[in-house]
Each structure stands twice: as structure tokens, then as C-alpha cells.
Amino acid sequence: MTAEQIIFFLTAALILVSALMVVTTRNLVHAALWLIATLFGGAVLFATLDAAFLAVVQVVVYIGAIAIMFIFVVMLTRRDLLAKASQTNAGWPWAALVAIGTLAGLVFLSGQMPNAGAQKAALVGDPLVALSTALVSPDAYVLAFEVASIMLLAALVGAVYIANRK
Amino acid sequence: MEFLTDPIKVIYDWLMSVLSGWGWADWVSALVINLLAIVVFILIVMVLDIILVWVERKVVARFQDRLGPNRVGPFGLFQPFPDIIKLILKEDITPEGADRVPFNLAPILSLASVLFLWAVVPLSSRIYGVDLNVALLYLVAAGSIGTLSIILAGWSSNNKYALMGAYRMVSNMISYEIPMVIALLIPTVIVGSMSLKAITEAQFTNGGVWFVLISPLGALIFLIAAIAELGRSPFDLHEGESEIVSGYHIEYSGMKFGLFYAGELLHAFTFGGFIAVLFFGGWHGPWAEQYPLLGVFYFVIKAMIGYWVIMWVKYTVPRIRIDHMLAFNWKFLTPLAFVLLMVTALTHRILLDAPTWLYVAGMFLSNVVLVWLTVELMRAQARRKRQSLPVIAAVEH
Fold it and tell me: Which of A29, A162, B142, B156 could form a disulfide with B102 if both were Cys (CB 3.0 to 4.6 A apart)?
């Protein structure tokens, strides 16, 4: 087993365990903290795949902004509300069935992939430069990039409008 | 002589030959040497942190017209050691209603978020942890771990003052992150890279000059945002002693408080270092390229000057009100930073092929014009506000 595989399995274990803890823990703030552990594991996976930019952005956006917002929102809820309530509802066998089916399908599909088990390709040049040119070049992702920008701008204008209404 | 020109490589080769002599495999000895290097580097930074306690106490004393520590050792130089012994001997209290794991995790994360930063700081031409191509974003990411540690400390203490302090600090850090990121984009736009090594080298190779001459306003915005990110006065609302005692670390005692304190001091010094790297040429100085250890010396001197400026502001300016703090960020600093980024990018593009003196002069002038326009705009707004005031104020005089 190479060092990279050891890191992958450790990270995967971290992600799975903390993701499980997110849904099973009864303390909502703890759930948000476990979610941060899950997201951090995602960042580690990106880093091992030579995607340093995505790894850092994952930490900045998900841990720095979204998770902090989650914690804020959770802190404003009542803590004693969930201590006794049941964590599942009557439909849980169906949900479990669908989840197991999806997992089986995904495992089957990933086995069918032509390059399953292949080594990752060697990098050519600076991946950051390649990513940034792809985002603004017309034959790559410029349309998606601009559409996302406009959507964010619309959300921004909407937020200002709602906050400004007397 | 080779030790003077490339000390890290000499030490590495020597250790490698020693470990190979013991019959260790190459990859094992490389791993051990790298781990050793990380531990030694962190230890050096932490020892520097101990000295910073003395520097901070001595400088604040001079600003307040006192003598400061002067009993233990020459100039009170050994004062931090009794301080640390005192902190270690104090009782380690965990409050009754505290959430134990986050409570203990918070001080560790707080110091770690600062230590993370030292991985990317280029201390010299050949002495640095890692040359990351997203180093500037990494700085922001480490800052968000710091935010997380504060909110953990505030919430898990189960104390309303701690929670209020954490809320204030987090609102402060999240808002001032935006002008800081934009100020970080200015060197990125000029150099075309986010690597701190490339940014340092661009400031003296190919006719480059220190970026403080190219973007003085960017340096100022970064300094203000850094002070806010540090939560130092005038942005120290989170520890407004007269209202919420001492903010998010009110329930911490002994060495756990010590970790927060050490983290804050080291954070201030680290931001001094980042100001030096981004705008004052980093380790650049006479003969620094041939002798890397000299480069480390220049870097520490420049970082100390940056740290001194942060202390100077801290001990001179009074605390501002929270609505003023938010208004200053969202209505003044953020728009100004955005306009500055656009002006910088545009001027940089226009003057790209111009000779160096014209390029530097043009960039500097664009900054001056922007400052002048801002001041004029603010003056006009102030005049409008004065005229709309009721006349009573004028009659009284």
C-alpha cells in the first residue's frame, strides 16, 4: 500500500464516520461540528488529487462561511427541543431501501467505468493556471461562469431589496 | 562556505548521510527528516512567540509612558519565563455547564490556525516550508479556522459574555475578510501568481520595486483589514472589558488561556510578516540572495516593524462602536477596495509595456488620484450632512 492510499483510506474513514455522526448526534451544534469534519475530509481528498485550489476554496467557502452560518442558525434554536424527539419517522425502511439501492447502483457503475483502478494522470503545467484560463476561455466554461455570476448578482440585489424594504 | 549559501540543503544532506549510515531506507530517512524539520520550525516559531510577550509588554509600556518589565534579567528580558510558569501552575478550570470537547478544542485550533500560516511564509530565498501556488487563499482559509475556534470557545463556555464576545468577533472577522481578500488580489493581479515566493521575487527582479510604491492604498487597506482580523484595538469589541468582561475567552484559565494569548501575539507578528512579504519585498535586502540567513534576518526585522505598527495603532486608538465598525467596513472599505482593484488592474494593463519608472509612477499616481477622489467625496458628503442639521447648533455659538 502506498502512502497515498493510506491517506485516502484514513480520510475516507474520517468522512464516513463524521457524516454518520452528523445525522445521528442529538446535539445540533455537535452535528454542525461533525459536518465541518466531513467537509475538511473533502478538502484533504482534493489536496491529494493535486487540486490545491479546490482544497483551499473548500475550506474558505464551506468551513469559513457556510458551516459558520449553520452554527449561528443552530445556536439560535432551542436546545431542549430535540432531546426527546424521535430521530426517524415511519418511512425509514423505505428510505433505507432507496439508500442501499443507490449505493449498490453506484458501486456497480464505478466497477463498469473503463478507467477504474487507473493511476491518476501526471500533471502538465500549473493546474491553477489551467483552471483559471478554462474559466474565462470561450471554448471552455465561460458561459457557465458568467451564468453563475449573474445568478449571484441577482441574489445579491434581491437581498438588498428585501433588507431595504421599510 | 556552502552552509552560508544553502544551509537547509547542507543540514538535509548531512542528516541523510547519518541516517543512511544507520542502514535506514531512503524514504524512511526523508520522512523522518521532514517531520523533524516541521517540529524544529514550530519550536522556533513558538520560542519567538515567547520573546514577543516581552516585546509587546515593553512596547505598550513605552506607549503609555511606563518602564515595563525591568526586574528579571537585563531589560526584563526573562520576564516571559515567570509569566509562563505562572500560567502553567494555575488551576485548569472547566466550567460546570461547558461542552467539554469543543471547549478544549478551541484554544488548540486558535493557535494552530496561526501556526498553519507559517507553512507558506517564505523566510528567505531557500528557506520556506512549501511554495504553494494558492498561498494567499491558504491565508484566508487558515483565518476561517481561526473564526471557527472563536465561535467554538464562545459557545462551549456556556457563558453569555463569552457568546456575545464570540458573536462580535465573528461578525468582525467575516466582514473584514472581504476587503482583506481584495487587498490580497492586488499583488496577485500585479504578479500574476498567488505564490508568496513569486510575489517576493517579483519585487526585486526584472526591475520590480516594493509593492508599497505600486499600491500604497492596497497596503493600507490590508493593514486595516489585518488589524480587524486580529481583533486588536480599535476593533477589539469582542473583549470590551467595560461591557462583556473579556469576551470569548472569559472562562479559560491557565495554559488554555495562554494558548489564546500566544495565538493572538503570534497572529499579529505573522500579519506583520505578511505585510512585509506582500508590500515590502519580504526577505529582500543587500546580499540576501547569496546568504539566505541574512534574508531571514531582514524578514524578521520587517515583520517586527509591521508588528510594531499594529501595536502602535492598538495602544493609541480607542475602541470604536459596533455600528461604526460595520458601517466603516461595508460602506467605505469594501467599495474602496473594489474600486482600487479595478483601477489597479486597468492601470497595470495599460502600462504593462511601459518602462519601469513610468509604470511605477503611473501606478502610484492612480492610487493618489483615488485617495484624492475619496477624500473629496467624503468632504462633500460631510458638508451636505452639516447643512441638513438643525440651525440650533449654529445659533448657540
Answer: B156
- Residue B167 amino acid letter: Y
A31 contact B CB<8A: no
- Cβ contact B144–A126 (<8 Å): no
What ipTM, to 2 d.p.? 0.79
pLDDT at residue B110 above 80? Answer: yes
Asked if B102 and A65 come within 8 Å (Cβ–Cβ), the reply is no
Average pLDDT estimate for A79-88: 65
Residue A98 contacts B, CB cutoff 8 Å: no
Query: Taking the model in full, what pTM does it have?
Result: 0.87
The set of residues, in sequence order, having a beta carbon less than 8 Å from that of A57 and lying 6+ positions away, is B137
